[in-house]
Design brief:
Blueprint lengths: L6 H11 L13 E2 L2 E2 L2 E4 L3 H4 L7 E4 L1 H8 L6 H17 L2
Antiparallel strand pairs: 1-2, 3-4
The structure holds zinc ion (ZN).
Zinc ion binds next to helix 3.
Length: 94
């Protein structure tokens, strides 16, 4: 996970998360105890496409990352819609 993600893309997905898990049902705080629990997740698996673009990456907490990657609890479409949703919320601040 996270191989060769450009600094710019990393900054963009961190900023997009606003420090909270991108799952709207979760939104757990990712910065605590002087560290963080944030994980970069690929929406389409890296092994399939080697796609490290902003569009294919999302910040999740470890629970949601596992539920997405290993338990297939969410579809790729669900996860993509979370990015859209967070960006809409973000726009409301300005
Ligand atoms: Zn989460």
């Amino acid at each position: 996970m996270g191989r060769n993600v450009s600094t710019n893309v990393e900054r963009k997905i961190y900023a997009e998360s606003m420090g909270r898990c991108m799952n709207p049902e979760c939104k757990v705080e990712l910065f605590k105890h002087n560290g963080d629990i944030m994980e970069k997740a690929h929406i389409v698996p890296y092994c399939d496409t080697q796609n490290n673009s902003y569009e294919n990456l999302i910040i999740l907490c470890p629970n949601c990352h596992t539920n997405f990657d290993k338990n297939a609890a969410f579809s790729k479409e669900d996860v993509k819609s979370w990015k859209q949703l967070r960006n809409e919320e973000f726009e409301l601040f300005f």
